[in-house]
Amino acid sequence: MSESRTTADFWFDPLCPWAWLTSRWMLEVEKVRPVDVRWHVMSLAVLNEDKLDEVPAEYREMLETQAWGPVRVVIAAQQLHGDDVVGPLYTALGTRFHNKGEGPTPTAIREALEDVGLPVSLAEYADKDTYDAELRASHHEGISKVGQEVGTPVIAVPGPDGEQIAFFGPVVTPAPKGEEAAKLWDGTLMVASIPGFYEIKRTRTQGPVFD
Prior knowledge:
Largest sheet: 4 strands, mixed
Distance between the termini: 37 Å
Strand content: 5-15%
Pfam family, one: Rv2466c-like
Radius of gyration: 17 Å
Structural class: alpha+beta
Strand order of the largest sheet: 2-1-3-4
Order of helices and strands: EHEHHHHHHEEH
Number of strands: 4
Protein name: DsbA family protein
């Protein structure tokens, strides 16, 4: 009898380097545990739109000038070409934004679309609100599972009773591989499944490491 598989729903904003590292860890988890990742967009711009006066000026500028475009392109691709394109497009965008250091430029977005065989014309949705309702719905689905005080990524998995358990993170660098990826997955699920457990945290002493 084949081992039963678990679906892990993963909400991301392609702009976030920490979510990117967690997503690369999840691809490793797929190799070492019976887990299938299902990708969804969430939006740092939506998350922070009512808190712009409270965030640092540099972060506010990023939210206002860079954060809408990439998620709008991903949600447009999903709406027009199906759920299966979300993961590959995220990989293409993240590789260019983070690993290659290109950032969320219009050129990087167009070339990421080319990388996965999607129409370059989808890049035009970066400046359109055509699918903002769908973007907000996807964002709300993820963030409602964990609350407004966190960011991206959000991961949700079936709990022991069949109800989803969800959590923000884990925040880790570099992305663990092999047995280390498996250990982190097992431990994360263990603590996340405890009723009343909310947080483990320590000060970051290292920036994102992309490999």
